[in-house]
Amino acid sequence: MAGFIRYSKHKSKDRIVEYAAFCVASRREGPKKNFCENLGLVIDKQNGVFKNRARGTFIFTLQGGYKELREPFQAPKPAAPAPRLRREAHGKNQVMAFGEAWIASEILKRAGLQRRLEDSFYSPKLKDALLSLITYKLLGRESYYFSHEWWKSSYAQLLYPHALLEPQKIHESFQRLGAEDLRLSLLESYATFVLRTDPLSLKKTKPELALVDSPLWTPPSPAGESAHPFRRSRAKNGARLVWAMGPRSHLPIFFQACRGPEDNQLLLRETARELAAKGFKIGAVILDGGQYSESALDELARADGRFFARLGPNVKLYADLVGAHGDSLLDLSRFVALGKRSLFIKKAPVALFGRTLWAFVLLDLAARLDEIRDFSRSFLEEGLDATQANLKLKEKGVSVYLANGDFELEEAARWILASQEYTEIFDVGPGNPDLAPLSRHGWETLRGHLLTSFFSSAARAILSGIFARSSLSVAEVFRCLGTLFARAVPEEGVIVEEPSKKVSNIISLLNLSFPAAES
User: 443-468 vs 99-111: helix axis angle to the nearest 10?
Assistant: First the structure.
């Protein structure tokens, strides 16, 4: 059939659609003109499938003309919209950081975690906010209140376009993420993911979880405010955390958060039952020092399970044990190295409350050096004499735990160190700049922060396990991929710059297909 098909593109809502017309050039009373017949919307350009009101869906080709579509036709998915670009001051396309956000998304998709989290959301804004913040914390960024600036200059803006991370809106994202029904849905989906997909080969090692009770914690008061939702008389409205994790994999599994000094024994029992119902086994319960008492130890002992109970420095038994064993800790026969932690541990039997327990006295070298440095600058100001100062100096970097089993030193160290990771998992350390502003916005906002930190820690543990198989570290991968940039070009998608040899080797080791162009 003589003639040609003319195509034209139009913008429709959030995507580009294409229309076509069949045109024939002809001279009728004067100069040559194109006489066109509308074919309508292009459904499948390659196979000549079109759709209009008069004919419905049909086939048209220059060779065969019009044909009926005898079988139901399933239209292909529309192409992803071209990225909406911001322009730089001089009119050039914005260059965005590509490598970090891209590889984090690819690995979490491969592990299955990202899909599990996405399935729990009905709101694209919340889903994109959580995934953006997880990536942001994975990269080791400090304050959430700078996350919007990172998002604007990163490939994350195309991966998670609906995220609300502006400083004036981020507390809304945390508040909505802190809703109890969403928290339970996310944690339920995540626990199923851990059991079914086994991201770190947990089923092969059959690990037992540490169920940990955290100290009663209160966020810092914002400057100039004497009272807020968390700091009233005697920290009545503080937060208590109970969480479970694998002491070897460092993979957090579950957490409960409640306001105020609730009955921690009840909270521990409820969490243990919930984990057992999900198919997990508790290897040891670790009680915080603030809950140490005869009744608490008696209840743990009667539960017929292993436990560790931390002694606070205000307990007389703590001072007695440090005084008896502190000077003999520095003995290489008591040295235990776990990761980057260097510990000296001594154990001794203790008769207490009519029971025979074991005391584990730990000296953490890194913590000792930090505490001694701080103490040496301040003890003169406190007016302590040399005898008092030396007694306090002996306690620096030392912690004491009671246990109902004669554990080997390394095994005891694993359980005890697991209990000390709550500030890292939940990002509630004293130097966190996010916490003072968060404390102004209420309980659900804080719970949203805890949830985001929990999943960031889970993602880091999963990435560490995957990268370890390739002799890589999370920090090394992100440091190298942080040098990779891309430019978003209309109609062409995301054009990635040529990767360095080291970046190419990392992508090859991880068995990823590097995208030459992403749309």
Answer: 80
Task: Give pLDDT, residue 399.
Answer: 92
- If you ran DSSP here, which 8-state letter would residue 91 be given? S
Ramachandran angles phi, psi of 154, nearest 5°: -125, 160
Category of 454 on φ-ψ map: left (φ > 0), alpha (ψ -120 to 50) or beta:
alpha
Q: What are phi and psi of 156, to 5 degrees?
A: -60, -25
Say how many Å lie between the first and final Cα of the chain, rounded: 36
DSSP SS3 for 379: coil
* CA atoms within 13 Å, Cβ hemisphere of 209: 27
- Cβ-contact 117, 190 below 8 angstroms: yes
Pairing of strands 282-287, 307-311: parallel
Six token digits for residue 412 = 């005891």
Q: Which residues of the chain fall short of a pLDDT of 70?
A: 1, 11-15, 27-30, 70-93, 200-207, 216, 218-238, 260-264, 379-384, 430-431, 433, 436-440, 490-492, 514-519
CB 193 within 8 A of CB 113: yes
| Centroid of chain to Cα 70 | 51
